Structure formats: structure tokens, C-alpha cells
Amino acid sequence: MTNDEVYAAGILNKALDPSTQPEAIRAFLHEEESLVAQLIPRDARVVDFGCGTGRHLIALLDRISLGVGIDYERAYIAEATRRHPGRPLHFLLADAIAVPLKREFDTALCLTNTWGTMSDKLAVLDEMRRLAPKPASRIITVYTSASVQPRREWYANMGHQVIDVTDECIVTQGGFMSEHFTEDRLRSLVGECRLRRIGTIAYVVQA
Predict the structure, then answer these.
(1) 107, 63 contact by CB (below 8 A)
(2) Taking the C-alpha atoms of 166, 16, 157 and 149 in order, what is their torsion angle to the nearest 10 degrees?
(3) What does the alpha-carbon distance between residue 13 and residue 116 come to, in Å, rounded to a whole number?
(4) 37 and 61 in contact (C-beta within 8 Å)?
(5) Could you tell me the sign of the dihedral formed by the alpha carbons of 171, 176, 182, 186, in that order?
(6) Pairing assessment for the beta strands 177-181 and 138-144 based on DSSP bridges
(7) Rounded CA gap, 160 and 172, in Å?
(8) Residue 64 structural domain
(9) Which of 36, 46, 57, 82 is surrounded by the fewest CB atoms within 10 Å?
(10) What are the pLDDT digits (tens) for 7-55?
């Protein structure tokens, strides 16, 4: 199975079930949400690439004036719309490398290693830059190389046993591939950026 097929089969719902999450992963998810909220300007217009079921935008409701979530998986967009129908949030079925939006946003997000599962990362980053053109207005979170062990446990809890780990990714028996990054690799891909860590699990990239 490809990553697209794994997501279509509902891996996101399993990943967000606290019963599947090792303690280190649960702590990361909580800290990620808190840190991203601190980085979002008050009353910002925010576009979320790979929004899934909308949890990040919904968590930011008290900070933003407009939120647009983009995902290619129809079931996730339907669930996001069910969870929060109407203003100020909108959820759009779209390809992250060809987003049918023209307006400018204050911030573009791609969180919880969504960027690390995408096949054309640089094209997605180009779209994030197009929609949020100000410096450091693109916020991405990706896994560090030190995150392998808790992720291995997490994926196994979701029914995806890990069969291979390389310097750049984890591959599971079900075909799911999730990348991890060093600072050098991130800078080589993203270019000039600000990096900070969320514990040992992830980097926050402001590009």
C-alpha cells in the first residue's frame, strides 16, 4: 500500500486515539499544539496543508480570523466539516501541490510530520510560500532521528509493524512510510529557516 492508501484506510483516526500513543508521542502532540498556538499571530488567516480531520485549526479557533484546511482525503474533509461547519473555518478537498486558492494568508501550517509523509515535499513547500509569502510564516513540524523508538511502538499499536528503519525513514509492513530528519537535511531541503525542538521527538521549522 502507498501512503495515500494507508491514510484512506483510516490510519489518522487510529493515530489520534490516545490508547495507541506512547507517552512520548502523547507529550509531543500536546506540546506541538501549544507551541504552534504561540507562533500564530492573533486574528491570523491560516491555511493548513494536510489538515486531516481539522484538529489543528479547531484548536486555534480563539486565535484566528480565518482558517482553511486542505486535504486530499475526502473522508477526512467530511469529518472536519462535520466537527466544525462554517465560519471561520473552511475545509477543502484539494491536492497540496496545486491548491485552488489565490488569497494571501498570514501563516501556512503542515504539522505532525504530514510533510514527512508527502511524496513531493518541495512542491508543497512552494505552495505554502505562495499562499503565505512573508518570511518565517510557514510552520512545519517533522520527526527527528531520535524519534524512531516511540514511533515504532506507536505504529505497531495501530497495526503497522515496522519492517525497516533507515537514516531517513521508517517503513511498516502495511506500506506506510514516515520520514525523519536531521538539522542538516532539513536545511538542505527547506533553505533558510528557524529550527527548534519539541523534546526529542520533533523539530518545528519556520521557513
Answers:
(1) no
(2) 40
(3) 18
(4) no
(5) positive
(6) parallel
(7) 6
(8) 3-206
(9) 82
(10) 776 788 889 899 999 999 999 999 999 999 999 999 999 999 999 999 9
Give the integer Cα–Cα distance in Å for 170 and 181. Answer: 11
Q: How many CA atoms, within 13 angstroms, populate the side-chain half-sphere of residue 40?
A: 29
At 205, list the grid cell: 521549522
Retrieve residue 52's grid coordinates: 486531516
- For residue 62 the three cell numbers come to 480563539
Cell of 50: 494536510
CATH number where 63 lies: 3.40.50.150
Q: Residue 125, Cα to own-chain centre: how many angstroms?
A: 12
Q: How many domains does the chain have?
A: 1
Q: How far is CA 149 from the centre of its chain?
A: 20
Distance CA 15, CA 39 (A): 24
Q: What integer pLDDT is reported at residue 9 of this predicted model?
A: 65
Tens digit of pLDDT for each residue in 44-102?
999 999 999 999 999 999 999 999 999 999 999 999 999 987 889 999 999 999 999 99
